[in-house]
Amino acid sequence: MTTASTQTSRSLAADPLALIDVDHVRFYVGNAKQAAYFYAHTFGFNISQVADLTTGSRDEADYLLTQGNIRLLLTSPLHDRHPAAEEVKLYGDGVKDVAFTVADAEAAYEQALRNGGVSDQEPRVIKDDRGTVTVASIKTYGRVVHTFVSRTGHYDIEQVKRGGSEFMPSFRKIDSPVNEYNKKNPCGLMYVDHLVGNVEEGKMDYWVQWYEDVLGFKMFKHFDDTDISTEYSALMSKVMSSGNNLIKMPINEPAEGKKKSQIQEYLEWHNMTPGVQHLALRTDDELHSVAELRRRGVDFLSLPDTYYELVWDRVNTMLKQHGHEAVKEDHAKIKDLGILVDADDEGYLLQLFTKPLQDRPTLFFEIICRRGSQSFGKGNFKALFEALELEQERRGNL
Questions:
Q1: What is the pTM of this model?
Q2: Distance separating alpha carbons of residues 100 and 98, to the nearest angstrom
Q3: What is the DSSP letter of 229?
Q4: Mapping DSSP to helix (H, G, I), strand (E, B) and coil, where does residue 204 land?
Q5: Angle, alpha carbons 369-375-380 (nearest 5°)
């Protein structure tokens, strides 16, 4: 008898690059222990596991942070020969690796190389008597890599999701008082909705083609400088999506404007090297998540009150035009929390963007809730960019 699970297994075997999950997002950071407590206290992540000198890791310290189906892996070098040492010096804290769970990491890696990808790390197997984790990496834009991860036995991804197993053989579970606090005061972040990459001017189409050719992604949406611009700056963006829509990866490049765009600012503070600009983290309750994050001290971008004088007519007219119900969340609370709202033919979304997460203006989070809409807040672009430009001007970078 053919079941849904056997059909899924066959499709995964037929396509080595079929993605099962976002296995993890790895950050290179200067001090993983301290960074772990920042993300735990401010964003509600649990400090779940560690691999360091106490577990036999002699080259790096790794802290695994979890919330919903989000896994952030914070890595710090333990000596100056580790590649993270040079990268932290050049770029500060930031995203190094967007890793994907696949059925067979070695097969996915070999297929990606046949498709034109460039190797970053050849396949290696990390194992003990309970199971294996196979990893292999390819290079993408700038400093970023994609690691293919396949897991067996105790380290199966479903076991990891449930918290029933260690992340890899070298990890051990840990507990912290902050985890108990987060359990009682949840932030409600569920999984990675999308990740946005910033590349040099003129290179967006190159990387769009790369994701199509090497990983089999498809273009989901695109925006040009008529969509994303203000009086002073503009950018171009194309959204790439995996074949099963598991993950979307917008790619931005700067466009010509009177002053410096946020993309150009990012590049200049990132050693003129492309990288991940922000992670969008999904919630099913935007008002609760943003209220809790604000209570914990998260700094969000601010919008003028005039935004809310115009947004409801625009959004509810769009929803009515396409036969959707009006925004159900409390309008006054949305305004009080500073949340942005947008709509399209499929429904609406709520979103809000943090300020940079470290001193260099090179990485931030987006908190997003979708009520049908699968877009990215096109109607908010102008208001958002004006808020970003105000922050750039305060930093002396506009």
A1: 0.91
A2: 7
A3: B
A4: helix
A5: 80
278 and 171 part of one domain: no
What does each C-alpha distance from 326 to 21, 290, 338 come to in angstroms?
A: 33, 21, 19
- 262's enclosing H/E stretch is helix 262-268
What total of structural domains would you count in the chain?
2
* The domain boundary residue, chosen from 184, 199, 231: 184
pLDDT < 50 stretches in the chain: 1-10, 228, 231-233
Strands 21-28 and 70-77 come out as: parallel
> Distance between CA 51 and CA 48 in Å, rounded?
11
Considering the domain architecture, whether residues 163 and 213 belong to the same structural domain is answered as: no
> What is the C-alpha to C-alpha distance for residues 290 and 283, in angstroms, rounded to an integer?
10
Q: List pLDDT tens digits, range 209-267.
A: 999 999 999 998 776 555 545 544 466 889 999 988 899 999 988 876 656 678 888 99
Whole domain around residue 361: which residue ranges? Answer: 189-395
pLDDT in tens, 171-185: 999 989 999 999 999
Residue 196 near residue 185 (C-beta atoms within 8 A): no
| CB burial readout 112-150, b (16+ within 10 A) else e | beeeebeebeebeeeeeeebbbbbbbbebbbbbbbbbbb
* Residue whose C-alpha is closest to residue 339's, from 316, 358, 366: 366
> 172 with 260, same domain?
no
Closest alpha carbon to 328 in 311, 310, 349, 314? 349
H/E run at residue 145: strand 145-153
